[in-house]
Design goal:
Arc Repressor Mutant, subunit A, mainly alpha, two-stranded antiparallel ribbon, 2 strands
Length: 88
């Protein structure tokens, strides 16, 4: 599978959003698609259980692949939270 990097215009747009991103704003996880942590967590909670499903639903991880490890951790964290026994 050939990986394609972000275009210069996307990279410039995302760099400027980092500069002006207010404190407390959701972290950008997928720079190529401009997807923040909140949006990706919503997709995972809605049933995206692997990278392929997440990519189909919102495009995360489908361009350069730099966010893939973070996406996998987010999916695994959601799974472990879903399977955790209730607190006593």
């Amino acid at each position: 599978m050939r990986r394609v990097g972000c275009s210069d215009s996307v990279r410039t747009k995302m760099k400027s959003s980092f500069i002006f991103n207010p404190p407390g704003a959701p972290m950008i996880v997928c720079v190529c698609e401009g997807l923040n942590e909140r949006r990706i967590r919503e997709q995972i909670a809605a049933g995206c259980g692997n990278l392929r499903e997440l990519g189909r639903k919102c495009g995360a991880g489908t361009q350069c692949g730099a966010c893939s490890k973070t996406l996998l951790r987010m999916i695994e964290t959601q799974r472990s939270t879903d399977q955790a026994p209730p607190a006593r």
